């Protein structure tokens, strides 16, 4: 990908005075905004320019004076800091490999974690042949990363503590039961919701039937790229088999006390299982 800014020598940029750096930074910002108008064809260009601005710290020389990278992105662009950083990563990973392939941004984000020098060409060829994704790339950048809508579970780590917001459908069903101390029934209901969702998607409630190879595209949106991704798909299947066994145990047992801590761990597992079949 021949982007003129990426070719700029970092030493040469550092030799510029503040006014010259400001003019260069503002020129780059304007070029990104122009590319954003038609982001489907220009996300790699945007990523390359952002990478150059970040590496050379030109963002500190924007009109309003010195600022952090996060402050710069929030002030200047119509997309989030996380999206700017993903554009940079996508450029770094695929900029020299994508060539003439026409691959939506969504697809590149999907294969970003698993692409390496050995499988790169096969992954890009496969992604270029796939049908167009549901999300428009511009909407993706404006609203956030894929599969991060409000119904999904969300986890944060801050000051040594992990906080998990459960998947919305599950939380709405178990919240009152947990508040009333009915932990056994809260766990059972969470498992029921997961199994119902699997049946809604595949027509099969039994995990071993639902996760047959022919259903991979229904559940995950594609067949596995390679053995590593096949292992991931199989892992999701075994997680749902576990949910099935846990739910059957609850269904055939007389209700017994489950402490709050264990109940929340069980329900968090159900939330993960639900999320993993609704990501495509």
Oligomeric state, counting identical vs distinct chains:
single chain
Helix content: 55-70%
So how many helices?
14
Helix and strand element order: HHHHHHHHEEHHHHHH
Q: Main β-sheet: number of strands, strand sense, barrel status? A: 2 strands, antiparallel
Overall domain count: 2
Counted beta strands: 2
- Low-pLDDT stretches: none
Q: Distance between termini?
A: 29 Å
**What is the CA-based Rg, rounded?**
23 Å
Structural class label: mainly alpha
Q: How large a portion of the residues is in β-strands, by DSSP E?
A: under 5%
Bulk shape = elongated
Strand order of the largest sheet: 1-2
The overall average pLDDT, rounded, is 84
Keyphrases for this structure?
single chain, about 5% strand, mainly alpha
SSE blueprint and pairings:
Blueprint: H1 10-14, H2 18-37, H3 39-56, H4 69-76, H5 81-94, H6 105-111, H7 120-129, H8 137-143, E1 154-158, E2 161-165, H9 168-179, H10 183-202, H11 207-210, H12 216-220, H13 227-251, H14 260-276
Antiparallel strand pairs: 1-2
Helix pairs in contact: 2-3, 3-5, 9-10, 10-13, 10-14, 13-14
Kindly describe this structure:
The chain is mainly alpha-helical. It folds into 2 domains: 10-143, no CATH class; 154-276, no CATH class. It has 14 helices and 2 strands. It has helices spanning 10-14, 18-37, 39-56, 69-76, 81-94, 105-111, 120-129, 137-143, 168-179, 183-202, 207-210, 216-220, 227-251, 260-276; strands at 154-158, 161-165. The protein has a two-stranded antiparallel sheet with strand order 1-2. Strand 1 and strand 2 (161-165) form a beta hairpin. Helix 10 (183-202) crosses helix 13, helix 10 (183-202) runs parallel beside helix 14 (260-276) and helix 13 crosses helix 14. The longest helix has 25 residues, at 227-251. The protein is elongated and about 75 Å long.
């Amino acid at each position: 990908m021949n982007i003129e800014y990426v070719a700029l020598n970092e030493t040469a940029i550092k030799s510029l005075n503040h006014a010259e750096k400001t003019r260069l930074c503002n020129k780059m910002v304007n070029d990104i905004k122009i590319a954003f108008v038609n982001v489907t064809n220009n996300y790699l260009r945007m990523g390359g320019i952002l990478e150059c601005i970040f590496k050379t710290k030109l963002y500190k020389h924007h009109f309003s004076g010195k600022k952090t990278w996060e402050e710069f992105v929030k002030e200047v662009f119509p997309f989030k800091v996380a999206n700017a950083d993903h554009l940079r990563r996508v450029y770094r990973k695929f900029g020299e490999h994508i060539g003439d392939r026409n691959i939506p941004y969504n697809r590149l984000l999907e294969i970003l974690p698993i692409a390496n020098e050995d499988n790169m060409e096969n992954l890009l060829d496969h992604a270029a042949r796939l049908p167009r994704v549901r999300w428009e790339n511009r909407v993706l950048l404006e609203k956030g990363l894929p599969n991060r809508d409000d119904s999904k579970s969300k986890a944060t780590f801050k000051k040594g503590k992990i906080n998990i917001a459960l998947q919305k459908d599950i939380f709405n069903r178990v919240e009152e039961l947990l508040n009333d101390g009915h932990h056994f029934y809260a766990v059972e209901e969470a498992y029921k919701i997961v199994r119902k969702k699997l049946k809604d998607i595949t027509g099969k409630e039994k995990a071993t039937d639902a996760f047959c190879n022919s259903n991979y595209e229904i559940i995950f949106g594609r067949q596995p790229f390679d053995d590593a991704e096949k292992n991931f798909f199989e892992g999701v299947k075994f997680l749902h088999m576990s949910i099935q066994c846990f739910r059957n145990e609850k269904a055939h047992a007389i209700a017994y006390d489950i402490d709050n801590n264990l109940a929340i761990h069980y329900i968090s597992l159900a939330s993960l299982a639900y999320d993993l079949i609704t990501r495509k």
